[in-house]
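thought: fold this chain, then report.
action: predict
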Amino acid sequence: MSRNNYFKKLSFLVMIAFSILSAAILIAAAFFNAEVFRIIFISVAFLLIVFLLFLLAGFIIVNRSFAKNEKKPGEGFVGYLSVTIALRLFMPFLLSVSNIFNYRKEEIRRVYIKANNGYVLSHGKKVLLEKLLVILPHCLQWSECSYRIREGLNECRECLRCDLGKIKELIKKHGVIVTLATGGTSARKAVKDLKPHFVIAVACERDLSSGIMDVRGLPVYGILNRRPNGPCKDTFVDTEEIENMIKYFTKEQD
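observation:
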């Protein structure tokens, strides 16, 4: 089953649960004689129905983001509202549900990252090279390397046993800012200190999804690392995708 199917299944289950709850409250209200209780039940049912419509709208918007040849979202007030519902409200809520019930968390996070990337790509925002920040996880460095990188990629000896050597070359080639993060806290600190206009972040599903939600208002393109040796050890990344995204989102100075 694909990650999109897990996303759809969880979305449908949540919406069905709210539909049943709304219907149960409305039916209960019909059998209460006390007018106060009837008003309370009807009001609660109305709020649940409104929330159900919010979930349905979020599901439709996110699902449409995977369709080909879709027009740019986020244009004007309606577009901004739809993006807010989908990426800032619906998906974080769905992620919370998947965390609570421990249901396919990684697949749901991938859907969120993919939807966010689709939105960022559709707008094609161009920034100056020096205003683009690339955030890399420390686990990209070869675990047996005798030269531990602490301050930045300048310390890399480019032995090519990991991807950092290749990334160092393309960073020098394009002149963008790069930082290595040990986790979400250090990544957020780098964003706060460096004040970029755009971020390309490499991380696992958990760190990427939480990072994207944390830096609202700043466009972030997420690239998942590969973890053949398990989490946080000797991970890899598609360096070609990093370079392609640097080219896509930057512009030369006048």
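thought: worth noting. Strands lie at 127-128, 132-137, 177-181, 198-203, 220-224, 250-251.
final: tokens above.
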